[in-house]
Structures are given as C-alpha cells and as structure tokens.
Amino acid sequence: MEAPIDEMMVFFTRAWSRGDLSDAECDAASDGYARHFESISHILPSRLAQLARIVSLHDARVLRVVVDNANNVCLTLRAGDFQRGYYDADLRYRGVSLLLASPEVSEIAGNDDFEIIADEIDISEGIHTFEHRLLARRGAIAVRFREFDYTVALVPDRDFVAP
C-alpha cells in the first residue's frame, strides 16, 4: 500500500518510478516538469532555483534530519556518483509549515531503502510559500517552507555511518 505522501508527487509519480508508464508518458512527465519549473523559476528563492539547476539529488541517501522548535528543517543528503564525485548537501528549510515523510522522519536517516530517485520543486499556497517533494525508492518526503538555503561539501565516497 502506498503512503499518501507518494500522491503529492505531481510529475515524477510512483507509477513513473516503477516503470508503469510508456516511454511517451515518461517523456511527457520529464518535459512537463521542465516546463513547469521554468515557468516558476523566476518566483523561487535564488538558492532554491540554483539547487534544482546544478545539484543532482538522484540516488542521494539521507544522513541526517534535524527539526528544531523554530520551524526549521535541515536534511543532510549524501549524493553524487563515482564519475563526478560525492558530496553532502545540507538543505536548510526555514519557516516550515508542513513536513511529511514516509516512513516517519525518524526512520529515514541512514535507511538504505530510502534512496531519492526524483525531486520536484513547486510553489505552494501562493507566491511566498514553496514546496520540495522528494520521491525515494521506498517512501517520500514533502517540505513546505518560506525560506531556503543549502551548502555542498565534497566527501571521499558514498559510504557513511548511520546515526
């Protein structure tokens, strides 16, 4: 049974990830998201648009999730590949009004089954609230927020010690 969070993905759906779509439908999903992103990119915080354009989160694993009492969330992801190198991406969301995860947030850090295969950035509830949806092989995360920043630090390889 799929978790409701999976249904939040608009373009890169669970059916897309399972290969249930035809080649034409897969192309339409990718092209549709690219068009959608370009149509909203001028409204997005510059660092969020930059993340989407230059940092690949494909095959990323979650090292750490920190949620504080001030409605801030930090996701630390280990991403990259052998050819281009590996890096830790710290995604910092401020003014978070929604954080959904399946499995639960406390269960995704270090979980080998939770490997990100696609993400979508969108506008939510008007022009000043944004959404980042991340689809994993087994699960998903959705964060709704008002401000965003990130850093990337190179690391020697993909391995890490789970928390």
Structural overview:
- The protein is built from three helices and eight strands.
- The protein has a four-stranded antiparallel beta sheet, covered by helices on one side. It has a four-stranded antiparallel beta sheet with strand order 4-7-6-5.
- The chain has one domain (4-155).
- The relative contact order is 0.22.
- With 163 residues, the chain is an alpha+beta fold.
- The two termini are 28 Å apart.
Q: How many DSSP E strands?
A: 8
Number of discrete domains: 1
Task: Output the strand order for the largest sheet.
Answer: 1-2-3-8
The proportion of residues forming helix, as a percent range, comes to 10-25%
Taking pLDDT < 50 over at least 5 consecutive residues as the criterion, the unreliable ranges are none
In what range is the share of β-strand residues?
35-45%
Query: Count of DSSP helices?
Result: 3
Q: Secondary-structure element order, as H and E?
A: HHHEEEEEEEE
Question: C-alpha Rg, in Å?
Answer: 15 Å
Overall morphology:
globular
